[in-house]
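fyi for ur records
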Amino acid sequence: MDQSSLLNSDPAASSLTTIALAVGGMKCAGCVRTVEKQLQQQPGVISASVNLVTEMAMVACEAETIDPEKLAGSLTSAGFPSQLHTDLSPAADSGLDPEVEQRQQLIAAIQKMAIALTLVIFSGLGHLGEMGWFPSLGGIWFHWGLATIALAGPGRLMLIDGWRGLRRNAPNMNTLVSLGTLSAYTASLVALSFPQLNWECFFDEPVMIVGLILLGRTLEQQARGRAASAFKALLALQPPTARWLPHQDQTQTNSVEIPVAQVQSGAWLQVFPGERFPVDGEILAGQTLVNESMLTGESLPVAKSPGDRVTGGTLNQSGGVTLRVTRTGKDTALAQIITLVEAAQTRKAPVQRLADLVAGYFTYGVMAIAGLTFLFWYGVGTRLWTPADLVPTLVLHNPATQGLLATVAVEPSALLLSLKLAIAVLVVACPCALGLATPTAILVGTSLGAERGLLIRGGDVLEQVQDLNVVVFDKTGTLTTGKPIVTDCWVTARLPEYQALTSERLLQIAATVERQVCHPLADAIQAQAQAQGLAPLVGADFQTQPGYGVSASVEGQRVILGTADWLAQEGISIPSTELDRGLKLAAAGKSLVYCAIAGLFVGVIAVADTLKPDAAKTVAQLKAMGLEVKVLTGDHPQAAAAMVQPLQLWSEAVVANVRPSEKAAAIAQLQAAGNRVAMVGDGSNDAPALAQADVGIALSSGTDVAVETAQIVLMRSCISGNTQLADVVEAIHLSRATLGKIKQNLFWAFAYNLVGIPVAAGVLLPGWGIALSPSAAGAMMAFSSVSVVTNSLLLRYTFPPKLGGEVR
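which gave:
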C-alpha cells in the first residue's frame, strides 16, 4: 500500500495545498507579523508561516479557492514585494539567481554603510575642528550639512520605508528609527534657525544613528549569509547541464550536452570523473567511487558498479560511468531534500509564539512609551528633580567631546532633555532581535543537520524532541541489519503422508510461496533457496496476512507459512514436541516460520537476524541521556528478548507479537501512560506508528514515507542506504542544541528590550544620572541584532563534529 494514503485518507485533507512565496521588504518581527496577518485574511487560507531570514512564506490553503499569483499580488500591494516561489536552484531558468541577487544587495548595503561611516568620521573631525585641530571642518553649518546628507543619502530608503509602514498602519523598525532621526534633525534645525531659544544643536545624532544602524544591518546581513551557506551549497549541487547519449548505446562515446531541465526519465547519460551526477539514476556501465558527503554526512566515498543507484548532486570521483535516469526534476532525492529543508526552515517553534505576539504590538508600544517619556520628563520629571539632580553625571550629548556616552556640564533645556530621552527610546527598541531569534537558529541548525545527513523538520519538532522520555525502535531493519539468513530447516517425521518430503523440498516450496512478498524473512528464504540452486515452482492464489504469514497454491495444494497462532486459527495442529523445539530456537533469538501443506503441519524454517554493529552503543547513549528505550517487534517474546539481550535491555522493554497494523496502537498506549514518545522505524510498514509518535524518525530509503510521516529524516539512509543508528543520537543532540540557541536568543532579545527601553526612558537618570544619547541607543540596537545572529552562528562551531558514525 502507498504509505501516503495512510495519511491522506481524509477527503478534506486532499483538497489542501501549500504555496511557497518569496517575500521581500521585511525588516523586523513586526513585518513578519503583518505579512502573516495579511495572508491569513485571504479567503481560503488556512495558515501562514513567514521566515524573516529566508524571506519565505509557506501558506496552507484550499487548492480550489486560492490563486497563488493573486496571493502574491495582495502582499505586493501591501508593501511587501512577493512572487511565487518555484525553484531556487541555479539550474532553474527562472530569472536572476537568488544568490547573485543577495550578493548584489550585500554590496549595495556595504556601499551605503561606507558612505554613512564616512559621514560619521567627518562629524568627529568636525568636532575636533571646534577644538582647533581642523578649523575648516568646524561650525554648526558643517554638521547640518553632514546630517542632511546622511538622511537624504544612505538613510533615505530607511526613512521612506518607515513612512510607508506608518501609512499602512504597519509600523516597523524603520518607523522607529525614522521618527528618532527626524526628531533629532528637526529639533536641531529649529535651534539653528532660532538661536534666541538657546537650544542645543545635535546634528551629529542623526549622522551617528544612521551610520551605526547601517553598520549593524550590514554585519547582520553578512551573518545571515553565513547562516544560510550550507543550504546554498545544497542548491548548488545540481549541475546545470548533463551529457546525453541519444542512441542508448554503451559503446557510444559522443554525448550531447543538454540543460538538466530537459533530461527525461529513462534517458542514458555519461558522467566523467570530477563531475556531479545531474539526476538520480542506475549505473549501466563503468565503476567508480562516489562522494555523497554533502547529502549524507559520510566522508568516505562509496564504490558504485553496474546495477547500483546514484543520486543527483553527488560527486563522481574516480571513473567515467553510463547511467539510466530514474528520477528527474522535483522527484530526485536532492530536490526532495531541498524542499524538506526549505519547509523546515519556515516552520516555527511554539516557543516563538510569545515573541510573535509581542512583535505584533511592539512598534505601537514603543511609540507610546516614547510619547509618555517625553510627556513625563517635560511635564513632571524636570519639575520633580532640579537640574542639579540631573546634570552631574547625565549621559547625553556634550558639545566638547561629542562622545556616544558623555557628561553634560551645563543645565539642559527641559524640552531638549525630554526630546532626547524620547528619541533614545525610539532608537534603542529593537523588534529585529525578536524576529531573528528563532529563524536564525533554525536556519543554522537545519543547515548543519543537512550537512551531516540529518533533517529536522522545523522548530516545532525541536520542542517535541526536548520533551521526549521514551524512544521506541522497530526491530527488523532498524535495530537489526534487516538481512536475516536461514539457520535451520527441518521436516517433521510424524506424518507418513510426507515421508518423501525433504528439507530441500520444503525450502523450495516455501521460496515459491514467498516469491511475491517483500519482507526480510521472505528475502532470507528465497536467498537460501537460490544459494542451493532450488528453482521456484509454479504457484497461484498468493495471499498475505500482515503480521501472520503468507499462503499460496503450489502444485495444486494450499501451502501456509507463518506463525504458530495463524496455523492454529486455520485449524492446523502442531505437535507439542515441535512447539518445544521451536521455543528453544526462539530463545536463541531466531524467528520461526511454521509450514503447513494441505491442512497438515509439515515442518519449520528458522531464520536469524543480527543486530547492527552500533546498536548497543546507540542504546547505551540514549539511556545515558535519560531516555527510556523500548523495542517493537512482531517476533515471539522469547525470540525478541534473546535478540535484544546484547543491548542491555530488560524483557519489560520489549513489546513483542505486534502486527504492523498494531504498531500505532502500541505507541498510543505508551502516550496514554503520560510518555512523550519517539518512534524510530525503517519506513516500510511503520508509517502509521511514525505519524502517531510525538517524534517520528525515519531510517529507511523510503523518502516518500519520510516526507509524509517523520519529523526527523536520516538522509544518509535515504541516499546511500547506509543506515547508522548513531545518527539517531546525533539528531536528538542537534535538536536539543538548536532549541537551546533559540531559548538563549529569545532570552537576550527580551532582556535587551526590557532593560534598554527603561534606561533610555531615563529611569536611572534621577539619583544615578545615567541615560543614553540617541546615538548610543542606535549602537545598542545594532548590536542586539548582530549578537542574536552571531549566537546562532556559534552553533556551527560549538556543536561536536561528526565522528564517522561513532556514538559520542
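The CA atoms of residues 102 and 129 lie 40 Å apart. thats all i got for now
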